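Hi L.,

You mentioned the student needs an example of a multi-chain input paired with its predicted structure. This one should do, with 1026 residues in total across all chains.
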Amino acid sequence: MPVSKIDREKRAKCLAGTGVTKVFGVGNARNVAVDHVDFDFREGEIISIVGESGSGKTTLSKMILGLISVTEGEIEYQGKPRDIKSHAKKKEYWKGIQAIFQDPFSSYNMFNKIDSVLLDCINMRGGRSLPKAEKEAMMTEACSFVNLKYAELTNKYPFELSGGQMQRLMIARIFLLKPKILLADEPTSMIDACSRATILDMLLKLRDEINMTIIFITHDIGLAYYVSDMVYIMEQGKFVEVGTADEVILNPKADYTKRLISDVPKIHEEWDLSTV
Amino acid sequence: MKNQLKQVFHSPRFVIGFVIFVFMLGMAVLYPLLVPGDPLEMVASSSYPPGTYISLADTLESKQYGLDLDITATRLNKLISQEDKDAMVLWLTKYRGIAEEDIPVEDSVEMVHFWNEHYDPEVEQKGLTNAKRQYYRRLASRMATILETKDIIIATKNPETGALEESNTISFNTYTNVKDIASRRNFVLGTDNFGRDVLKELTHAVGTSLKMGLLAGVIATLIGLTLGLLSGYLGGLVDDIIMFVTNLFTVIPSFVLIILISFSVSQSARGVMLVGVIIGLTSWTWTTRSVRSQVISLRNRDHVNLSKLSGHSLPRIIVQDILPYIASYVVMALILQISSAILAEAQLSMLGLGPSTTKVATLGLMMNWAMTAQAPLAGRWWAFLPIILSIALITFSLNLMNTGLDQVFNPQLRD
Amino acid sequence: MGKIMLDVKDLKTKYVTRFHESVYAVDGVSLQIEEGKSLGIAGESGCGKSTLALSLMGYYFAPLHYMSGSITVDGMNISDMTPDQVRKNVLGNEIAYIPQAAMNALNPTQKIIRFIEDVLHAHDTKLNKKEIYDLARERFEILGLPASVLDRHAVELSGGMKQRTVIAISTILSPKVLIADEPSSALDVTSQKMVIKMMRELMEKGFIRSMIFITHELPLLYNVTDDIMVMYAGQIVEKGSAKEMVFDSLHPYTNGLMGSIIVPESGTRDVKLTAIPGTPPNLKRPPAGCRFAERCRYATAECKGMAIEMKDAGAGRTYRCRMSEAELREVYARE
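Structure written out for the whole complex:
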């Protein structure tokens, strides 16, 4: 049972944006990737941002992460304007927001062992001076959270795992870091349907157990419907429809949303191929 | 990593290159140890072909052996060249009117007798230059005594009377054992125009050139790597500035630049290592460009983004998350830089703009010396062919190692 | 019953790694496709789906090696042909193959029409340039691709357009069997739908006479193919009509796969997804008994000990499990 109805107004503001814009290039090469979008993410919500490739969702996610600058607009973090001007401030911000990316194979430094990936997270949370046994206990707990066995992973390299396992290890990393916000950028698009279900369930578990806010970015509206409370539909840098998952998917208003839904194969309803 | 090292040695190209390289390196390191001494010592008075040289005076003092061997035939074959024979036949047919088939060309002894019988300098020799006439006269006098097997008397001067006294007689069948002669020297590759042992000089030069190449390669790679990493990772203005400078250096042919810099450095200051530094300082551009493009594609990889999100500092991200990925590539670039630096030094030295020194030899300097002494024209192959071969082998082995590494590290070329 | 287009009997192929280890990726697969029918192959990554697709072409090159079994395309046995014969006589006109990254196979320096000329010349066509161009334009127009694509370069086309172009090129000779290995997985949903529509059209217009469609997206298979075959660890574990497989699966593995279907329909949010724990076995040393036993919720000691043969459940339905049809249904009903 994924999501209960949430009384949104009661929840604390977590991340909000007004007029967030990103422009690449100047003059003729000027390209507005994200065009004055507003958003309001509350604590403990799972928010999906759905759009096709090129709709600007990845650019938006990088702005939210603070990996690229915002051309125009304000981002508020926990009710206050976000300040990530210095490296120290950024470091502080990144303690509160973390990410899982699309391609598990490029998400790991292949020269580092799995242990060092996890140890790094413990160190980042200020656990550098903990005794070794305690660190290992933490890593074991994180691995078991994602149904992996730490004993089997220790001294291995990430590329010795399958794509699904690597992505689960990413979630173990998030489990150790315990950020306020998790940005998951198409975490399931490179792995098969079976592992996908596992990953999605783990994201739900993260939310339920740690009260994490999860921003889930996807092109598959079916996945968005399964996991999220709020759905933001993005087309060419703009949000064309925003609402709760049930509102948006079961009763879409925007043509773009309707098209996205009709493009996904169904099993109980007829899939109309004539619309393309 | 260990596995990759194993794979490197599974690549036949790398192994062949490595073996050749180790051979050259071993020669440069071991030969001076086995045969100590100044490599640039002038031991001969001129350029002599390869061979074992023994002291003629020593042969007189050494133990004598009597061997009964037919020496005329072997001696004649050695002393009468085909050229001489052809000249003799030509003279005999032209001025004596003897048919060619009557001349016993095959048998050298017969031939000499035949010549001594028929040659007459008084015969009218039309159409023969004076020099040629002289040549035939000399030839004739040589032929006249060539078959004589007289004993040779060694005489010493009496210091008091000034008269010559017979001290030793060397008969025709007196031999000495080469081992008995104390003063002998084997010049495997002969001596150069300054009378220096080419092999010794060459092993020394290979070592110096490799050192110089390594210095130039390391300098070029370090500059290229640093600039490439910075411009690729930081992007923006830094990238623009670095790429502007790089493009400037790329547009000016680096060899012209090397020539100009070398030319402007005073003769006395232009040592081997300085030339290495000059080559290194001018050849970093393409390392910069290729490192930059590699870094740009790595910069957008998710593991770098994650490393940033983990709050790691810029140096740490560059060292831990970027460098390992391009390390193999940089090693390959270094290998190529070394080989091109060795070539560049050789080219510079050929133009006379290389290291200005007579204290050490480099491959380029040896080529230069051979060229100024006109060794190629004089047919003294030993003064330049071994050097060309050494340069070729070193660069060939380095390039072979490079392609071998490429096969291992570049998955697209892996079979 | 229609004419059999592709008949595969007990096909076994393996990979040989650079360390001379054998990986038995396809281990005794038998299947038949009738004219006008399509077959979907589903399974996790690492189950041998893609290797089966490669093996079915009969075109073997290292590291893939043929071991045993027969492949018959419309009455012609291709399993004992040399790779050269296969390339000349089978690929393109009998069997067409579209891999996942097919769209990256277009040489960026050539116009699209050149690839079509290539395909036709490789099969000794007598057509001249003009005739080829007309044929291509006609085919493209029927398939809903603008004819202007023929004069463009690959870089000028979008991902979905490239993929559809490649499919049109590879079916230009109207092959008897089209093998499509994840043709739409790298595309976004709209392009995916276009690709699917085009493949349906190929079947309807008779440009291909049968089709094998490989993907891990079950809703897609359900909408595209007549039958679905599920592969696990190099073997077929269940085969049946698409509807039966999705709504009434027998084998525990199929059942597990169906539990991971996500579609944007009301009600899906309330269903808990059931993922299968664990990973597929290493095919260097396939398990002796039931290959799925390690991950099966219903496995007993008996399962691990004995090799399971395919069982017939009637009406073209087969499955590979120790339990009988009735037993399986009972187990599922109890949950």
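You could point out the following to them. Chain A has one domain: 10-268. Chain A touches chain B through 23 residues (CB under 8 Å).

Best wishes,
N.
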